[in-house]
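Q: A reviewer asked whether we had any structural model of the full assembly, not just the individual parts. We don't, so I'm hoping you can provide one. Inputs are below.
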Amino acid sequence: MVKIDPRSSKPIYEQIVDGIKENIVKGSLKAGERIPSVRELSRLITVNPNTVSKAYSELERQKVIDTISGRGTFVSAYYKPKDDEDRLLKIRSSIKDVIIEAYYLGLNKNDIVGIVNDTYKEMEGK
Amino acid sequence: MVKIDPRSSKPIYEQIVDGIKENIVKGSLKAGERIPSVRELSRLITVNPNTVSKAYSELERQKVIDTISGRGTFVSAYYKPKDDEDRLLKIRSSIKDVIIEAYYLGLNKNDIVGIVNDTYKEMEGK
Amino acid sequence: MVKIDPRSSKPIYEQIVDGIKENIVKGSLKAGERIPSVRELSRLITVNPNTVSKAYSELERQKVIDTISGRGTFVSAYYKPKDDEDRLLKIRSSIKDVIIEAYYLGLNKNDIVGIVNDTYKEMEGK
Amino acid sequence: MVKIDPRSSKPIYEQIVDGIKENIVKGSLKAGERIPSVRELSRLITVNPNTVSKAYSELERQKVIDTISGRGTFVSAYYKPKDDEDRLLKIRSSIKDVIIEAYYLGLNKNDIVGIVNDTYKEMEGK
DNA sequence: GTGGTCTAGACCACC
DNA sequence: GTGGTCTAGACCACG
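A: Here is a predicted structure for the entire assembly that you could use as a starting point for your response.
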């Protein structure tokens, strides 16, 4: 479901957030579908419940999931993309960083576009 | 030379590292050219010298710059890209994160490839 | 655990780095084992925490240790040696320096090989 | 005569000291032979005369060379190795550091002894 | 509790 | 002048 690398510098709660979103993008979690409770997931991936809780809060804030008290947590029925200048700027910034880093690995534009295509294929395939 | 956003979650020393590398990739800093001394840059961007020093150490570790004791710091004459599995994995991971984030902004593959192309143009143009 | 000679010309953080690695090579620190926290070690050897931190960063960069956020620092489970031309060159250079220095102490090749053997024995014995 | 790498972390004056000693060990500089004056050498290797001067002072302190005022600088006629506990300890320490570093490159005792032998051959061959 | 970042200010070696 | 090291003390995110 979600793979955690405790040695990563990316905080665990963020790995969970990204992991859930990845599952949704891939389609292995569908709109309206129930996701594990905090306790369940914390047991599954052996992570402190507080950490899972923090991740779920963040996902709720981003309107990726909805918590219905007493019934559980569900993938938001419909996510309506909205213009979000900040997040777009972040994406552009990340892409710039990737390109600079790639330069120092000897990768050119085609290599990067190739990796982008590969990544999309990999996601759709699942 | 290097723009610092003190409110960014990206640490200042990392912003400096990326900023210097960006200048080199864009060509506004050329191989062999001297970059500002630690104290100079720290004054310019009003950041503690230790922070600049940390950035420069990291850049030297990455062989992006060379420091000549008593004379200053210079852009490495020639950077020979070498296979670095770890860094390639980091790039792939960043791209995956970008794609997931982009999905939630309603951007598709073509949008991303478009941004990649734009970013390359922007860099070469300078 | 780690002995510091404040009068040595070798910087303290480097003495810590080498000291930890020596413990691992000798086997007194085993893979997966926890090493003292930055604050603990800084208290133990009466050195500023920042200095210990710098040493730990370097060790992590070399993949000798892993730090798990909030839980502490651990000897890497498995260290996979990889080709590193730079470090090999450094070793060759160090050996050359040793040999030249040894000449001026009247030591010949056999003496050096003897010391090498002794040092290995000493390490395995512990 | 002496190769200088201004980018090295080893200070230039120390590179000169080691370089001269290496020449003597190799036999390309013989006992009693004249070595270049400070000015000559500083021109030859394009290094600040003060730096060469400092190197020569150090070599004199170590009784490796003798300066005869008005006549020049000469390789000491005869170097009598003396027991010098400190320097022996330094050599042992260097060897220990080499062995630890070698461990992390996957080199074992035989590899190290091999490099020692190679280095001796290389020196005698010149 | 953990490590990571940043500031301020000091000292030192090198050139 | 340069960068490198170290100390002291502070703040923050993470778990």
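A: Points you may want to mention in the reply: Residues 82 and 88 of chain C are 11 Å apart (CA to CA). Strands of chain C lie at 34-35, 65-68, 72-75.
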